Amino acid sequence: MTLVRWSPRMVRRPQEREGGNWMTEWDNWFDEFFGRSPATSCDWMPPLDVREEDKHYRVLVDLPGMKRDDIRVTFENDVLTVTGERKGQGEEKQGKLHRSERFSGKFTRSLRFPSDVEPGKIDAQFKDGVLEISLPKHEGAMVRQIEVK
Q1: Cα-only R_g, the chain
Q2: Statement: the pTM of the whole predicted model exceeds 0.70
Q3: Does the domain spanning 43-141 belong to CATH 3.30.360.10?
Q4: CB neighbour list of residue 113: distance below 8 Å, 6 or more residues apart
Q5: Where are the alpha helices (H) located in 34-128, listed in sequence order?
Q6: Most buried of the four, 60, 133, 140, 147, by CB within 10 Å?
């Protein structure tokens, strides 16, 4: 399993795009050498949302065109990992392909959660191309209103 860490160094400023900055180039080379580049970990990365609510965390992952059997969800050491593979459409037998923007191939998304998640009660539902994962919190971790006297 490969975790991809976002770094502000990955975002290039306009002045660095043209002439380059040796420090930025060095950081990029270092990240790629040690496998911390998003391009080395997967073919594509589906977008996701993470929400924290009172009693649980909710993760929504957009996976259009995928089947439930092509998706795997695991939770280990406070890390939620969603992996899968979207099959390509194959070669077109007729006509020419002028533009292709739909991603296919393997993907992995990993998110670290606080230790207040109850692993045995995690629920995942897949409907209409959206994977919804609910990660309930321990009872003791929920915020309680305390009356001030």
Answers
A1: 20
A2: no
A3: no
A4: 57, 78, 79, 80, 135
A5: 38-41
A6: 133
Per-residue pLDDT of the chain (149 residues; tens, 9 = 90+): 555 555 554 454 444 445 556 666 666 665 555 554 444 446 788 999 999 998 999 999 999 989 999 999 999 999 999 999 988 766 556 777 777 777 788 999 999 999 899 999 999 999 999 999 999 998 876 566 678 87
Can you tell me the distance from the alpha carbon of 16 to that of 90, in angstroms, rounded to the nearest whole number?
A: 38
Distance CA 143, CA 55 (A): 8
Place of tokens 């037998």: 93
Residue 137 carries which DSSP code? B
Sketch the domain layout of the chain as residue ranges.
Answer: 1-41, 43-141
Residue entry with tokens 């739909």: 102
- Which token pair is 18? 């043209």
